[in-house]
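User: I've been trying to design a sequence by hand for this structure and keep getting stuck. Would you show me what you'd pick, starting by listing the structure so we're on the same page?

Assistant: Good idea, let's start from the same input. This is the structure you sent:
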């Protein structure tokens, strides 16, 4: 059974940091590209960051570049999103995704709220 379980969300003041984790099971984690997406209230889900399966090459949306860092630990079947210099506009539900050219899995999401 495929599972992606996000954790680490919560309430943070602007300028603060949070680290999201996504624990994967039920598939060969090291073979999958991993990504983080987010969904603001009333808006469509948007891509945030991605990390390749083979060489861990990373890519970021312009809105988070320089502030967020995606990483993976294939030994622990876990992908992380380190979020620094948080802004109120980062408030969203954050989703973990695992995909190949043929299939995509989603986690259930974790809420991140940035507010003073």
């Amino acid at each position: 059974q495929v599972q992606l379980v996000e954790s680490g969300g919560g309430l943070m003041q602007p300028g603060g940091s949070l680290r999201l984790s996504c624990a994967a099971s039920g598939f060969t984690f090291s073979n999958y590209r991993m990504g983080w997406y987010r969904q603001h209230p009333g808006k469509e889900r948007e891509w945030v960051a991605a990390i390749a399966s083979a060489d861990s090459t990373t890519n970021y949306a312009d809105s988070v570049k320089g502030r967020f860092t995606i990483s993976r630990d294939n030994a622990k079947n876990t992908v992380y999103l380190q979020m620094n210099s948080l802004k109120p506009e980062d408030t969203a539900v954050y989703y973990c995704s695992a995909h190949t050219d043929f299939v995509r899995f989603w986690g259930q999401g974790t809420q991140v709220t940035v507010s003073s």
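That's my pick for every position. To get oriented when you compare it with your attempt: The mean pLDDT is 96. The radius of gyration is 13 Å.
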